[in-house]
Amino acid sequence: MKDNYCVMTFHSTHHALNFEKALKTKGYDVRLMPVPRQVSSSCGTAAEFPCDKKEEILKICIEMDIEIDNPYTIENKKGSNWFSKFLKK
């Protein structure tokens, strides 16, 4: 299991699919997944992306008018998971 990973949440599956398509076209490693339980107990689609590319990805979303909800970092600590929400600038 990874020590940490980043996910983006969306208001709809349509927005998640747009995010995935746009970022993969630009060569980013993006994978759609269910929203992690640490983020929300409701159903939904999230996208896992490289944490070290967060700033670049947020910039691309603004430039390409891709609708996103929030980015999160999911950290695995001693067998339990917890998350931190990135602060928006």
TrEMBL record:
Putative Se/S carrier protein-like domain span: 5-71
InterPro entries the UniProt entry points to: Se/S_carrier-like
Pfam family, one: Se_S_carrier
Designated name of the protein: Putative Se/S carrier protein-like domain-containing protein
